[in-house]
Amino acid sequence: MEKYKGVVPQQNGNWGAQIYTNNQRIWLGTFKSEIDAAIAYDRASKKLRSADGPRNFPLNKSTLLEASFQSHCSIETVVGMIKDGSYQAKFEAYQMQKKDKESDNNILSVGKGSFGFSRRVVFGKELTPSDVGKLNRLVIPKRYAVEHFPRVPDELPGFANEVNLWFYDPEKRLWKFRYCYWKSSQSFVFTRGWNQFVKDKKLMPKDKISFYYQQNLEMGFWGIDTCKSTSHIGSSLKLGVGVGVAVEEEDDKMDDQMIQTSQVKSHGLKLFGVQIFG
Q: Would the pTM of this model clear 0.85, i.e. be above it?
C-alpha cells in the first residue's frame, strides 16, 4: 500500500511522481526522496484538480500562496517546472516579489497619513559647488556619518571600501547610493547614484538636502529631501521646516579642501586614492 498519493518507487531507489486527470496519466518526474515526489504530486494536483483536490500534505501559509503563483502559469508550464526541478526556485522568487510589493505598498501608504508613523529629521547640509559638480560625489559631514550611517569596512587599507545605502524621496522613489570612506582625504562620501540624483532634482550650489528617518512599531526607512535655495523661485522645503536641520558648512569646506589636496602628490596625480600617473 502506497504511503503517498501519486508516488511510485523506482528500481534505482528513487521515487517517481505521477497524476491522472481526464483519464490521462501525466508523469511528473523522478525524485531522490519519497517526500519530494509527494510534494510534486500536491503541486500538480493544485493546478490540475483545483486547490481543494486530493493531496498528501495539509495546506499552510506557503502552499496557499501557490494558487496565486500558479494562476500566472499554464498547466504545461507548471508541469514543466515540476519536471525540470525549477518550481521551488521560481516559487520562492514569486514569494519575495510579493513581499517586496507589500513592503512598497506599506511605504507608499506613509505619505497618505498612515496612523502611527513618526518622522525624524536626522541632519542636513548645504550643497557646495563640488557636491553638485563633475566629481560625482557628496561629502557627508564626518560626525553625522559616524553617528547615523553604517560603518564602512576598512579591512583592506588603500582601497575605497564601500556599502550601499537606500533612501526614499518624498515621491516614494527609491534611490541607491554607494557610500565610501576615502582614506586619502579622510572623507565619507556618496559616489555612484549621486550624480543621477543631482540631475533629477536639478540641484545647484547653496541648495540644501535633509536626511530623515520614518518608522512605526513594525518598520522604518530612511528618506532624503531637497530644498532649493532662495535663488530658486517657487521652491520650498517639504520636510524639516522649523525642526532645526543642521548645516555643516565648515565641515564641508574642510572636506573639499582635503579632497583637493589629496589629488595632487609630488610624484604624479592621485585621484580619489587611485594613482593615475607619475
A: no
